[in-house]
Amino acid sequence: MKKIKIIAEIGWNHMGNMELAKNMIKSASINGADICKFQTWSEKKLKKGPWDNDGRREIYKKAQLSEQDHMSLLSECSKSNVEFLTSIFDIESINMLENIGIKTIKIPSHEIYNINLIQLACKKFNQVYISAGAAKWEEIIFLKKNIPTENVLFLHCVSSYPCPPDILNMPKLLRLKEEFGEVGYSGHFQGIDDALVAICYGAKIIEKHFTIDNDLPGRDNKFAILPTDLKKISNFRSNFLNMMINQGLDLQKSEYDIYKNYRGRWSKDEK
């Protein structure tokens, strides 16, 4: 069975603190993550909106990553034996990431409408992950018809932060699997149950927001999973993959003793 990869979505939980970001990478690696993901944006390209009145613009500015920051995090991921991944929001980010040698990127849910961005990303990168949250089904099918899907993997997602269990809509993951063959899951449920269900449903990518302290500043730190949670997902993945190894229809070698010596041990039914 193909390996299931776990993404630790660090995002902007580091709040611009590179040492904190690097510590998160190390912790994610130790506890079973295959990929550490960040977010790449420019605060200057952020349109006017409610974030101008509630302090979020300043947070975006503080948490944005420079090209040097990206290279530093890329290096730390390499040292920690995990893949580097980031979400992109504009074409300029594509050019910068291509220049520093990035081969895989992610399109966040609220950019799923941005066909120009996605088409260019598909041309520039070897692998593109697309979160399908906050998207109508016809938008997903439109993308299928207008991008080269051989290097694209869609992730089922519900863009609610945090997401209660009754709207996780896991059957949609199965529908995406029918449509595209392989799919992933990006979850905002507070806990790990959604990740375990997604693994059982056949998701090949599991993404969960990750932090080393839920009391750190920033919205996502509040509902992100901790290192112990990440380890539980990783352990479940290992057990699941072992359970799914096809051992055939006959009894197992470990059952031979029971088969040979224990059957009929007490009595034999007499007719």
CATH topology: TIM Barrel
Q: What is the helix fraction of residues, given as a range?
A: 40-55%
Broad structural category:
alpha/beta
CATH homologous superfamily? Aldolase class I
| Overall body shape | globular
Mean pLDDT: 94
CATH architecture, by name, is Alpha-Beta Barrel
Structural overview:
- The chain has 271 residues and is α/β, with parallel strands linked by helices.
- The protein has a single domain (5-262), classed as Aldolase class I (TIM Barrel, Alpha-Beta Barrel), CATH 3.20.20.
- 41% of the residues lie in helices and 16% in strands.
- It has 11 helices and 8 strands.
- It has an 8-stranded parallel β-sheet with strand order 3-2-1-8-7-6-5-4.
- The model has no long low-confidence stretch (mean pLDDT 94).
Short description:
The protein is an alpha/beta fold.
Observed structural traits:
alpha/beta; TIM Barrel; eight-stranded parallel sheet; 11 helices; 271 residues
